[in-house]
Amino acid sequence: xxxxxxxxxxxxxxxxxxxxxxxxxxxxxxxxxxxxxxxxxxxxxxxxxxxxxxxxxxxxxxxxxxxxxxxxxxxxxxxxxxxxxxxxxxxxxxxxxxxxxxxxxxxxxxxxxxxxxxxxxxxxxxxxxxxxxxxxxxxxxxxxxxxxxxxxxxxxxxxxxxxxxxxxxxxxxxxxxxxxxxxxxxxxxxxxxxxxxxxxxxxxxxxxxxxxxxxxxxxxxxxxxxxxxxxxxxxxxx
Length: 238
Ligand code: GLP
Known about the structure:
10 strands; alpha/beta; binds 2-amino-2-deoxy-6-O-phosphono-alpha-D-glucopyranose; single chain; seven-stranded parallel sheet; three-stranded antiparallel sheet; about 20% strand
């Protein structure tokens, strides 16, 4: 794991977008895994202005089950609003897990389309307060493929800030599995703020533990972790 501790959120976003831009410059038809949440918003803001998505192929990590794709809080909506509507990406190269219809079939098809594109070159990840990656909650298997997942109370609470009330937060999602994520050739995880400090510490300095999903990344051979000083505050070694 290569760790970059940046001064603040803006510098974290700058560093993360520079890494992604470098990958795209090296391979214009990059297979790029994308994440949602507040953390990548700054990164997307920069990529919108500076990156060339003409040939880039994207695969998003996850989507809620129980709200439609055009719901303003769906991850489909988020991605178009924060990135896709503003870049020159070919719409047929955009992939986001579908929570419509047969989830099991959609999940298998999703993993197969990643495979058909030659696998993910670079996967961008955020980090849940409970160290989830994608929507892989504590207890998720290391070799899990894309599928339907039950969200934990901690994640529902954390994500309720976007909804009118906690009862409106979907309780299920479709997510790439940890196995799917681990197959990416390289990974870029970003995290910001004190709320993530414990998860960051457990991910980097803790044991590999099924209850700390992000700790599995210790086994991956090409991981860049870009965090701000607040998120790094519990780390012993800096
Ligand atoms: C969400 C998403 C994750 C994201 C995480 C952190 O539940 N499924 O992909 O990384 O929570 O979100 P945020 O960046 O808003 O803190």
